[in-house]
Amino acid sequence: MQVHPDCELNIRLVSEPEITELHIKWMDQPGPTDVLSFPMDEIKPNSKSNGPGIVGDIVLCPAFAERNEKQNLTKELELLTVHGVLHLLGFDHVEVKEEESMFKLQDELLEKWRATR
């Protein structure tokens, strides 16, 4: 995605009480969630102006993610990590067209990742 290879990204695994607190504080949404993204330096994909920087923070809640029961926990955390990174890079899924684009890219990235493992 043409992001500078020296960019930094933090991933933190937290409990349900902690993600609930973050969800309320930063998103004004009640209850726990599976992933939150906090962008930092507004690094965008395929931008020639991107230099080294801090992409942002991703916070994952494995206990909540495990209850999604869509796939095993490892695969679910992979999906949530890719989802979180895409949010950090400016992708969103508020509008239907945005959702289609973001989720298509998410699936492509996951497929490539899993093929290399």
Structure overview:
Strands 1-3-2 form a three-stranded mixed beta sheet, sandwiched between helices. The chain is about 45% helix and about 15% strand. By secondary structure, the protein is α+β, with helices and mostly antiparallel strands. The mean pLDDT is about 90. The two termini are about 20 Å apart. Helix 3 crosses helix 4 (about 95-115). The protein has helices spanning about 15-25, 60-65, 75-90, 95-115; strands at about 10-15, 35-40, 55-60. The longest helix has 20 residues, at about 95-115. It is built from four helices and three strands.
Short description:
The chain is an alpha+beta fold.
Q: Regarding CATH, which class? A: Alpha Beta
CATH architectural grouping:
3-Layer(aba) Sandwich
How many individual helices? 4
Segments where pLDDT lies below 50 for 5+ residues? none
Mean pLDDT: 91
* Estimated share of beta-strand residues: 15-25%
Q: Strand tally, please?
A: 3
The largest β sheet comes out as: 3 strands, mixed
Shape: globular
What topology, given as strand order, has the largest sheet?
Answer: 1-3-2
Structural class call reads alpha+beta
N→C terminal distance = 20 Å
Radius of gyration: 14 Å
